[in-house]
Amino acid sequence: MFQETGKIQFVSTEPESGVTIHVAPLIDIVFLLICFYLLVAQMIGNQKDLSVQLPAMANPVIRQEAPAELVINLRQDGVITVGGRRTSLSSLRALLVDQVAGANRTKRTLSVVVRADRRQRYGKLDEVFKVCRQSGVRNLIFRAAEKDR
Prior knowledge:
Elements: H1 23-47, E1 56-57, E2 70-74, E3 80-82, E4 85-87, H2 89-105, E5 111-116, H3 122-135, E6 139-142, E7 145-146
Parallel strand pairs: 1-7, 2-5, 5-6
Antiparallel strand pairs: 2-3, 3-4
Helix pairs in contact: 2-3
């Protein structure tokens, strides 16, 4: 009923060769890690509008920048940008309502960072804050730069 298929060999009959390290897979992994970090750095850089000069804050304890889910830039001329695209207050309101609804569905907290240029009028900044409040944003962060001592 049972056929004998052969003996199990625990000792290899092949001649022993030295241990070799294959460098090509290691190079591939390092290359992928470099690509990943370049992509993440590029995505973080896209959130910041370089023409926005942040106001200085005199507080000696400034927290490290935490990643935000949504960054709103307010330029000196009053132009609002989100993700590198210009937007109006009504479009910003619709975007925030969608983001808050999505965050509520997934049971997470939406973090919104406002980066306002220190040379712009604060009336426009107040309008942006008002839109954030009306849209239901609970975690609103106002970004400032450390004051030179």
